[in-house]
Amino acid sequence: MKTTKGLFFIITMIVLGFTSYAQEGKRPLSGNSYGVINIDEYVKLLPENHSGIIKDIRLIDREYAGVRIFRLYDEVPMHYHAKSDAYLYILNGKAEFYVDDKGPVVAGKGDLLFWGKGTAHGNGKILEGPLDVLVFDAIARDPSDVIWVDPSTQKKFLNN
């Protein structure tokens, strides 16, 4: 059930409102309030080898949310984000992850990791590579921020 909720969140973030751009000469089908991005196409653009720790492609860059895809090549030191929460969905690979003073926790393909702003995190050894990650950087949305286009559908939605 947790995986289903995580995937629902990811799909919702992609499908609902954004203005997007991408590096590497590709551009997702997009508009000011919607778009479709084929994640597999962007995974193919990530180089097998890289001299740095990370190579990322920014897919969506909005004031209140951003979506990136990245490949990790080495360990990432502990760090935190002062202004946004992070949600990482592992597309391929497996690695050790640390959050605050906990760890290591092993996460791999199909796992969703998350931490709130100000929470220190990083990753240790890459156990299986390549380690490809879909990342959502977001400011929290209040649950009351759901405006039903057809108010009669609210009851049906809430009863499911």
Topology (SSEs and partners):
Layout: H1 2-15, E1 29-30, E2 35-36, H2 39-43, E3 54-61, E4 65-72, E5 76-79, E6 85-99, E7 102-108, E8 112-115, E9 121-138, H3 152-159
Antiparallel strand pairs: 1-2, 3-4, 4-9, 5-9, 6-7, 6-8, 6-9
Provide a descriptive summary of the structure in words:
With 160 residues, the chain is of the alpha+beta class. The chain has a single domain, classed as Sandwich (Jelly Rolls). It has 3 helices and 9 strands. It has helices spanning 2-15, 39-43, 152-159, and strands spanning 29-30, 35-36, 54-61, 65-72, 76-79, 85-99, 102-108, 112-115, 121-138. The strands form 2 sheets. Strands 3, 4, 5, 6, 7, 8 and 9 form a 7-stranded antiparallel beta sheet that branches. The radius of gyration is 17 Å and the shape is globular. The two termini are 14 Å apart.
- Strand tally is 9
What would the CATH topology be?
Answer: Jelly Rolls
> How many angstroms separate the termini?
14 Å
* Share of residues in helices: 10-25%
- Supply the CATH superfamily name: Jelly Rolls
Q: Roughly how many Å is the radius of gyration?
A: 17 Å
Number of helices: 3
Summary of the model, kept short:
By secondary structure, the protein is of the alpha+beta class. 17% of the residues lie in helices and 42% in strands. Strands 3, 4, 5, 6, 7, 8 and 9 form a seven-stranded antiparallel β-sheet that branches. Strands 1-2 form a two-stranded antiparallel ribbon.
